[in-house]
Design brief:
Number of strands: 6
Order of helices and strands: EEEEEE
Radius of gyration: 17 Å
Number of helices: 0
Helix content: under 10%
Strand content: over 45%
Distance between the termini: 16 Å
Shape: elongated
Structural class: mainly beta
Length: about 120
């Protein structure tokens, strides 16, 4: 099993949507994937400032995967860390720089359950 590709999708100040592509390089099917995500956010800041993102909590999610032997599967994850909302600026009324009020999520460790 390998995580072949991932992309951040849309996000809010509480959740990020992440698309992942897994490749099963084994002759045994995979029934479930457990994926850890490192969340990140931009801390509160003054207008015109652009501080670096800060790491938030690591979130662990599990999904039924159903990846056939030597198969590929795309999974979609909603990674939520509502505790980060109060640490960020609210979304600006004009929408400019709204990305500075969204969390991010990057895949980290992956584990899986083989079919028996």
């Amino acid at each position: 099993m390998t995580l072949a590709e991932w992309h951040d999708g849309d996000a809010t100040n509480k959740c990020a949507n992440v698309m992942t592509v897994y490749e099963n390089r084994s002759d045994t099917a995979v029934i479930a994937i457990t994926q850890k995500f490192q969340t990140s956010y931009t801390p509160k800041h003054a207008d015109g400032e652009y501080p670096d993102d800060v790491d938030g909590p690591v979130k662990t999610l599990t999904q039924d995967a159903g990846i056939a032997a030597f198969g590929t599967r795309t999974l979609y994850w909603q990674v939520c860390a509502p505790e980060l909302a109060s640490r960020q600026n609210p979304v600006p009324a004009d929408g400019i720089d709204a990305f500075m009020s969204e969390i991010g999520a990057q895949p980290r460790a992956t584990s899986w359950d083989w079919a028996r």
